[in-house]
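Researcher: Let's run the pair from yesterday's discussion. Sequence first, then tokens, for each.
Model: Starting with the first of the pair.
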Amino acid sequence: MAPSRDRPEDFGLSETEARRRLAADGPNELADPDRRTLAGILLEALTEPMSALLLCGGVLYLVLGDTTEAIVLFLFTTLSIAITVVQEARTERILDRLRDLTAPTALVARDGERRRLPARELVRGDLVFLGEGDRVPADLRLVDARDLSIDESLLTGESVPVAKSILPAGAAPPAEGDPATARAGTLVVRGSGHGHVEATGERSEIGRIGRSLRLLEPEAPRLRAQTRRVVTLFAVGGAAVSLTAVVLYGVLRGNWLEALLSGIALGMSMLPEEFPLVLTVFVAMGAWRISRVRVLARRGDAVEALGATTVLCTDKTGTLTRNRMTIVELRRPPGTPAARLADPARVGAPAPEFRDLLADGVLASARHPHDPMELAFHDLAAAWDLDPTAGAELVHEWGLSDRLLAVTRVWRRPGAGRLAAAKGAPEAIAELCALDPTARTALLAEVATMAEAGLRVLAVAAAPLDERALPATPLGLPFGLAGLVGLADPLRPSVPAAVAACRSAGVRVVMISGDHPATARAVAARAGLADGDALTGADLERLDDDALAARLDRIRVFARVRPEQKLRIVRAYAARGEVVAMTGDGVNDAPSLKAAHVGIAMGERGTDVAREAASLVLLDDDFGAIVAAVRLGRRIWDNLQKAMAFVVAVHVPIAGLALLPFVFGLPILLGPVHIAFLEMVIDPVCSIAFEAEPEEDDVMARPPRDPATPLLSRRLIAWGAIQGVVALALVAAVELGAVARGLPVAEVRALTFFALVFALIGLVFVGRTFGATGFGLLRRPNPTLALVLATVVSVLAVSLLWPWASALLRFGPLHADDIAVTVAAGMATILVLEIVKAVVHRLERSAGPRGTALPPA
């Protein structure tokens, strides 16, 4: 009797019905997010305080006729805006990568015929056929599964493929998951099957992850937020002081033009143009430095944030482990001499009985497998120079079934007759071998011992056969137990040392896995994670936020965790004030990677979705590179504080010299062009020297800094102010002395300007380290410092000797004795401040120990 065309399980949907559903539900793809226009992104970038200040400064210089300075500021504005636009575009690319994970085509039944269609045309109810190596194109409800196994690590983190089967009518799916479903984006590694589409596009599991990514608003980078506050504060303060000075000068002296010029100079002296520039340089150089240890910084400020990390949430599969199953133990039947072979990959010439066990396991596997466990059999056989399938012919095979969780293959071997080889669940192999109760109990005891160590255990059996016809099932064949095979997803070699280094740096490592709790605990133990509690996803579901927060300190392992639960864990740590870094490689990790302060994706095995959601990518999947990134992040923070303290110090003498004409009635020496030259050329060049400073000695021996620590603390500002006051006093003494000697204004300007620059160079030497005192800091290697000094001296020489430049800056000639005075001002700055350092450090040592990375009081 021919099957009825009214049964869609036989013939699928009609084209008419499929078109109707496609029009109603939309295509099977992730919808485009609400993309902002380029104009909108540009407007947001222009309203950022840093960009707005740069733009206003450029307009101001343009109005004053200083075209060169205006162009420089406009260039920096363009750079800042370009960085913002590039960052915003990354979120859009995440959804594009998610779309790429869906199969481009799918084998579908339409109008009783099988045809291959673009996956975007699938609709609910379509009948889709799956084969080995296929990417599942939509969420399916299976109606047939023939030895079907699917790799779901992309979505669940489970490293072992999941066997699929059809539930009996009316049966409820088990708690650990419905075996009759296949999710979009997963990969068929063995067998075949077909099923009806249950969900497409954003209604699928992978679509729900895409929606959560689009709706997720990551926390703004702390460094950028702190810099924004500092810049805003300086801008408001500078504007207020400048306006007050203009009014007072104009009212008291009656010269409003001179008052306006002096006010502009004073205001520009307090505008922190260097802050965004210094931050950009440090971020860019940090990204370059971390790339040298094979880590890609997709978001530059993430390197600094990693240095402040207090909790590192790491995925297991593909992150701590290789995401490639490996045979780590072989066991012969209980009671057999030399019954156990641990770490067989390191054994060059194993005993014959273990070679026979492995040969039987290979014969029970596909000749060209996709299944990772079967790949493990072939990998070890290749290492042992063993190929039992050479010249053999595959005669028959029985796949997995609900009745028997084992795979059996029958081979005909030249000159050796036929052989049946089987592998599968130990209980199923025990049934095939018809073990008596005593032997069965002994076998399962061995299995339990291996499972407690976190191993995936398969049993192997073999049966010599004659040429008689094969039965309907392998049950009843004369199988003999060959032994047990323990498989595991091995740790990456760098993981234990990296975990230990994180612990010494005060970074708590927490593993989050979709695997079974026993497997997760075993991997955590091998990785060296500190003792602590393990929490399953089911346990997590029963805890409210307060109860979860109360247990976070004790938990080191989360197992059987769903993607949305990973996101909840990251948010729970962040809510406690922790700086959270999250590693991962799968689609299931993308939301938590994006929500974490620092998302770290695997570059080789990581999906494009994970890489696009992350801020750092480990190009070689080397977990140990995280330690190098933490070290570099802490170094960047220390050096950035030094640079910012230098910038604060620089503004004190610049503002002071701009204010002297108001106080003492002196000629105006520093105009907008001089201050722009100092703040946009000299200061940034000097700041680069701090970026190249070596790390402090205790950089990885101290705990992470308090996440609430501001970039410019009161202590740091005070130290910067002290440096600036000393420099101002010395430079002002040079200026007042020159005025007293009756030198022309142009010469006084040049002398004062050069003294100021050399004093700033002195501040660079003083600020190289907060911990060292005296001139021993000169022994710290920093080749960039010599380059910076040469650049600054060259710029000064050009400004004095090139007629066009000296005319622009209104400099008079300087003689050798004048140059000596300016150099002496710089040397005196170093000497006085090093004495101040020594006194402060002595007082602090008498009060108790202090960290070398903190500025002196």
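Model: Moving on to the second of the pair.
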Amino acid sequence: MTPAPIHFVKMQGAGNDYVYVDCFAEPVPADPVGLAPRIADRHFGVGGDGLVLVLPSTLAAARMRMFNADGSESEMCGNGVRCVAHLVVARGHAAPGPVTIETGRGVLTLEVTPEGPRRSRVRVDMGAPLLAPAAIPVAVPVAVPGADGRVVDAACPALVEPEPWWHDCGLDPRMTCVSMGNPHVVFYCRDVARVPLEAVGPRLETHPIFPRRVNVHFVEVIDTGRVRMRTWERGSGITMACGTGASAVCVAGVLTGRTGPRLVAELPGGALELEWRGAGHVSMTGPAAEVFTGTWPEA
């Protein structure tokens, strides 16, 4: 029997783009792990940073399953969950306003403000950051974390010997590690544009100190309320934006004293607004927009 075609919607949040399947109306793909690399391929597929399934939930308005471009499943995506919230409101699965979405991080609450039939502004309660090394996880020597057990401005075993690019971008090789339900490592530098991310990103992502791999962020502080950042995402490579990553950068800025509790993060795909006051939950606000709809010929 020939597999039935899949109807999808391509969406983006600050340039972080995924292929979304509304499984309220469509059958759940039989093999999303195998489908994700094919449908996300930017030359031979639809193109995107991965595949997101929007499913019914017994705990929330909808459930989100996210697959990276390499087929690996991730716990959460801040830009992706904003798009999921837009979709469930735009398709009538939930009313505008507060919307709950079940993710690998747990149930998140979002506030959806429609700006048109294909675009919304969405605020997300990203939950509290996880800062204990075992929770991130990061396997570092006992002597590396700070006195409170957090990995904040700590020596990075993956960056030991200075390399020419350190000077080019003004790198501070110390790392700050945060989990927003998925693992992140944050580095600061003078000029993010001069970081050879395509070479450094995969080396850091797969370093043995990160047992579940890691999302890598380089950050340039413009002032205490604004940063510029670039991201290498675990399983997807260089992306235009990363919502959980921007949240981690907000947390890292507060922990290291480089930035304040309210932050605008400038990413290649646009700006995200973050807030974290040193305890409690991180909030993130940004756009969610439909790009086009289409049909994939087979499951």
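Researcher: Give me one sentence on the second I can quote.
Model: The mean pLDDT is 95.
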